[in-house]
Model the fold of this input.
Amino acid sequence: MMEIRNYLFLCLILTAACSGSPDIEIPEKIASLENLTVIEVDADPIKSLELHQEAVYGDTDEVIIGSMGPFFVDHLGRVYIIDYNQNVLHAYKEDGSYLAQIGREGDGPGEFRRINAVRMDDQHLHVMDTSAMRISRFALETFKFVDNIPIPFEMEPAGGYISYPGNFYILGDNRYLIHFGTGYTSVMDDSEAEPKEHGRVFNGKTGEFEEGFVYEFPISEAIVHREGGSMSVMSTDYKRRSSISVSGNQFVHGWSEDLLFTFYVIDGTYKKALWQPYEKPALDRNEILTQYAEREEPWRGMIRNDDMPDTWPAYSTMLLDDENRVWAALFTDDEETYDWRVYTDEGEFLATFSWPRSKTISEVKNGLAYTRETDEETGLQQVVRYRMAFDEVE
Done:
């Protein structure tokens, strides 16, 4: 492992003479980053990691989830699952037993039209509803409704794209970091504007957004087909993605072309970067075409006409846990599994393990990993909690 600063690094090759390791080619855009930590391509992890199932959250005798959306975990280990069908939030105790339904469908106080994300602080549960364009707060102990905080936002399409709030994070003192994703419109003009996803600070006390952006990053790739006044958008696993994950007072951004993760203070100040060379698996175009052969038009044609990359992305999923460790699910030649890698906040290669792609790790908190899975017997989706067991590598 090597620390490299851009004012000391001018060439694109880190030689064995400098590092005592085999030559590593560093792309210029990566080599120019300050406070860059490079992990050798053949580095061994410090520890081994195993996950042991402990609890399951989902349908119970008391409740049936209509359509499971994202889930969230608070500091007490309680799990909250969004129900897209009923437009409510289901809360579960740490042991998996059902706790309460929060809210209901509607436009009144404590009611929802479309729940996007849920966050918690020491006192409140904060629920973002971008259909009603507001954040609803509930008492964390009783789940009683407290108040609504309207989000001042109007859709303003530009250049064939549209920016919209889709996620948020609590900054404290009634301030929120709102993440704006970018979608597409059916009409494309001659503008050369490059679409970005970005973050802005919203002051709940004043009801206004503060000036400027905390961050701006490229949007995830997609296949877009515009014809007349209609439009079709398709996301595929082989397209490159932009990922942002927040923990405490910092966040990490990744672009899945590389195993490169850039760290920022929550106000957007750049801190450091971590990079490990990785040979991405080759992408077989014929295999992709076969996978989509049974799809209807225009989807099949969109895949057929797409300019596919030669390789898969470096990883599918990236997240930051509550100890500021980066977790990344790497694509491999095995279509059934990911090779997960875990990196410490100090830039160490902590652990790696193979894990089924069907068991998506979505959150890691309090020494526990939470996945979204489909029960093999019932076919129902559920959240599963695993305890992490790190062991020293002999």
Observations:
- Residues 211 and 317 are 31 Å apart (CA to CA).
- The chain has two domains: 1-38, 39-392.
- Confidence is low (pLDDT under 50) at residues 1-22.
- The chain has four helices and 33 strands.
